[in-house]
Each structure stands twice: as structure tokens, then as C-alpha cells.
Amino acid sequence: MRVSNADKSAFPAWAACCALAAASLAGPAHAADEGKRFGFGTPATEEQIAGWNIDIGPDGENLPPGSGTVAQGKQIYESACMACHGAKGEGGMGDRLVGGMGTLTSDKPVKTIGSFWPYATTLFDYIRRAMPLMAPQSLSNDEVYAVTGYLLHLNGIVKEDATLDAQTLREIRMPNRDGFVDDARPDVKHPACMKDCPGAL
Amino acid sequence: MRHAPAPGPADHRQDDDTAIAPAGRDEAEPDRRRFLRRSGALVGAAAAATATGALAQQASAPAAEGSALPPNVPPWMKVQGAPTGGELYGKPSAFEKHVVRHLRPTDKQYFSSSTRTPLQELDGIITPNGLFYERHHGGVPAIDPAQHRLMIHGLVERPLIFTMDELRRFPSETHIYFLECSGNPGFNVYGKTAAEANGLVSCAEWTGVPLKTVLREVGLKPEAKWVVAEGADAAAMTRSVPIEKCLDDALLVYSQNGERLRPEQGYPLRLLLPGYEGNMSIKWLRRLHVTDKPYYTREETSKYTDLMPDGRARKFSFYMEAKSIITAPSGGQKLMGKGFYEIRGIAWSGHGKITKVDVSVDGGRNWQEATLQEPVLTRAITRFRLPWEWDGTPTVIVSRATDETGYVQPTLEELIEARGKNSFYHNNAMTPWRIAETGEVTNARL
Questions:
Q1: A31 touches chain B (CB under 8 A)
Q2: Tell me, what's the ipTM?
Q3: Which string of b and e fits B90-104 if b means at least 16 CB within 10 Å?
Q4: Domain end position, chosen among B96, B121, B137
Q5: CB-based contact (8 Å) between A138 and chain B?
Q6: Which pTM was predicted?
Q7: How many CA atoms are closer than 13 Å to the CA of B65, on its beta-carbon side?
Q8: N or C: at which end does chain A have fewer Cβ atoms within 10 angstroms?
Q9: CATH classification for the domain delimited by A67-171, as one of 3.40.50.11540, 1.10.760.10, 2.160.10.10, 3.50.50.60
């Protein structure tokens, strides 16, 4: 059986979706604000939100107070990170973290913090929430600043005597900052030949 | 068709009587076990045939003494079966022990790892919960639902915290949707079976509350454009989701296929974003942070972006495009000589309904339209079938799906032409299977 192709309202689905979005964003309120509210849930206090919200924006939003030096970061890295990521971030059990500059257009691209990551803030966010692997969310904010600084230093992005804090971290511009583009799919058009087709598998 | 003998699980049936006779408390059990041991080899052979749905049951061969085959009466009719209530949470037959998720043996560690659905063993469109594919980034947390909370904050009028009981009080919806990892598979061809080659896709009936219902409760501010979702696992996985998706078909899910989510699928609460790459349907969901921008988290920059030959990477490549795979005959199985076979498979698209599946039995030279099995649902797996007479000559069989946008599933060559070999994610290429003169089926790309 075939499903009717007549209804084009969903084509392409993402375009329809964006059109909807534009419509809803144009108004003063979202569609979700219309309709019934049930009164469920308990108000979240500032303190509760602060305790859980560890998201760091790409502009440095929500970076906490504190600081750490590259030298401190080296010590923390060697005790908490090196076993998986290698003596100098070359990788092992864990991802390679260093190097690979200029390889993204090659046959064997090496995607690291230095060669690929667009935002240094993401490094702070990720280390704080998910690393070290066996003890996530165990590092203090000072320690996370320090390790972030050390990894940026290993990638040649900050100097050896650098101190990282909210201000210095948000000012860093990563080498691959402009290396990301929007999704261009659908990008392949298969001819859907039925008889005597070329290029058989 | 018959599966090639699997090493391990198939073998143990012949000498492990506990695999044949499930532990029970009835007194007939010892007798049955003795019987089974006595006739071990024969029962084992029959068991292997049953387990694989095989048609190779030597129908014309004379029944040996002790055999369950005609004219003999099978032994399981001469004793009471296992007592009622022996398994208060039921399990598959002991003869189905080979039907398990595929775990790659070569991963460096298994906290951030995956298992694949045994597509070649399944019928219908629903993946059983115990066989649903897994992709974890920090292992599987054990969460007490009484201690779990969902916090929604950020650009909202009323930041709120919900208990699981409160979330289940909201009006609920149930939908069937597929979920697929965007690395299913990478661009390096891997896998002898359908599970190994393409098993990071599954489909289930999900029950939960529409996200838009809960967002209405907190009240979105006009500048709300994205929602950062966070899981309560050791990865504290975060992804940025466009507000349009959140107000469309996004669900906060607490049940899967009629029962509460399994721990591997996010118990007690997960986000479900139909048609989007699986990674974004955050499991163990504990927080939704409404923002005016995407947060460029590690999982949407360092990972889950598609590197192009020009060195730039596509970001926010959310949708899974149309795809299909033949699950029978498929890699690791064996045809039992020429004659009739039903070619069976599954198709799905993140952009809506599957409208057509074409199948070629001559390596892509000529194609026929397969029959689609109802129901054909939006962003769900659809079954297709094509009757086929195999003439016994070696060939390659392959399927390609078309969805309601008119998009047609491409070949791997076409994808590589457009994206190079290093984009890794979102490989929705056709999977061709080679059939040898012996009837053995292998991955034609290996």
C-alpha cells in the first residue's frame, strides 16, 4: 500500500516546523501559554536552581567565581586525568585532547579541544559536569578553572603563566570558533531508478 | 531460512539441561531432566531448529526413538509443565537465549558505550524493552523515583520542580516512535549481522506528557528559543533543543511499551524528541533550562557534529533521514536452497511517514516496490515485505526507503560524495546483503 503524497503540509517537516516557530515567536507569547494550567509542581527557589544549574553559556553566562592557574591545572591533570588522556593529552582510554591543528581538511582529521572545539566555555562546563570519569562533579570550581587552563595551554591557546577565571575564560576565542555551519541536509538526491539502473551495488 | 550456527549460545543447548527445562518446583522435573539428558542430542537439534524459526526440520526423515517428532508424542505433553507463577516477571523461552543485544567486544571501556538491537531476530514494529538499543555516556544510574525531580527554570514565568507523581497527573499521550543513534552506523563499514551493521535503531510505544503541556505550566517568556535538557547520569548529559520542537511533538516519557521505562532507557523520566538523533532524547531527565540560545555543549560540538571535507562541521544536525534495511534474509543467516522466500525488513524516517520501499534482488540493477504493512506511522518503524523466488544463483539484495517528503534513501557512495568519509554521523545508506550459492548471507560491503 502507499500513503497518500497529497498532503504536503509536512514537507519538508523542518521547514514547516520553522514556519510555525516564526509565527509563534512573532507574537507576545508562545502557543504553550494558551490553554489550561493545572497548578502542579512546586516553585523552585533561587537556591535550588543555583544548586542544580551548572550550564555555562557560550558567552560565559553562569561561569562561577573562582580561578586557577595553568601550573595548578597541570598538577590536577596529572593526578586525575592523565591515566585516561595521556601524559600530555595525547589520548588513551579517553579522547585525545591536544593537537591536530590544521588536520580538519585532511583524510585523517584529528578533532581535539584545540583543533575542533568552538568554545572554551564548553570545556569548563564539560569537565565540571562529567569529569573525571570515575568521580564526576568532584572538582572545585577553582580546580576546574585550573584544568581548563592547562588543557588550553597544552593546545597553545593560553600562556604557561596564565590564570583562568570567568573573565579570562569568556574572552578566549578558540581557533575553530567559525568552523561550524548549519545543517545542509537533505544534501543527497538518489535518482530512485527502477529498471536497468546504472551503478549497481 | 536458517541461521548459521551461532558459536556459544546455540551449542550450550545440547548439554545444559537447565536451558531446556526452566527451573520449576514440580516433582515431575527430575524425570523430565533425566529424559532430556538421555535424548540430549536429538532434543538439542530440535531445539536449535525451533529457536531459529527454521524450516529445516527434516520433515521426511524417520523419527528416531525418543524424538518429539511425528509419529511420536513429544515428551512435554506427558508431564506437567512449569508451575504457574514460576516467573512473576516473564522471560523469553529458554530456546531464545541467542536473541540478545549485540555488545561490541572492542570498546575501550563500557561506561560510554552502546548495545545494538538484534533486528534480524525481530518481527513487527515494536522493539521489546529488553532488546531496545542502548547508548550511555556515563553508565546506567539506579534512580529512586521518589527521589527524582524535574526542575524547569530559566526564561519562564514560574520556575517549578515536579515529582514523578505530579508529572503522571498531567493529561497523557501514547505514541509509537522510532529512536535511532546518529552514529548508526559510522561511515566505516562494520558488522556481519543486521544488528551489528544497523542495530542502533529501535521502536517503541511511548507514554508520557507532552512537553508543551508542562511548559504551559511554567509559562515561557517571549525570548525563550531553546531548552537545554540535562540527564541525572554521571555524564550529566546536556543537549540544546529548539523551542519549536519542544512545542511540537516532544514528550516527557515515563512508560515504554506499557511498562515503566527500563533503567537503560532513562527510568524514571526521559525526554523523547521524535525523528531527532537519539542522543537528544535525554534520559534520566532532571532539568530543563529555558534559554535564548543554544549552549554549545560538548555533545553538540565536540561530538554529534558532522565534519565536511572543507574542514567545517555541520552543527545542530538533528533529524534522522529516511532509511531501511532488510532483516531477512540478512547477514549471518542461510537460505535452505532455492525457492520461495519472503524478503522482510524495516524502514523509518525522522521526517514523517514512509511512503514506499523498493527492493532489488539483483544488486541494485532492477527494483520492485515492496508491500508496506499497516500501521504506517509518522516517525515510526514501518515493516515491508516482498515475495521472492530465489533461483539459487549468487546475488545481492538491498532495500531503499522513500518518505513523505519525497526523499529517497541514498547509497553509501552518494553520501560520501556529498560529505566525504569523515562526517561519521547520520549515515542512512542502504545496506546490501550478498547471498552466496550456498545460501549464506553476508554484508556485501565487507
A1: yes
A2: 0.85
A3: eeeebbebbbbbbee
A4: B96
A5: no
A6: 0.87
A7: 1
A8: N
A9: 1.10.760.10
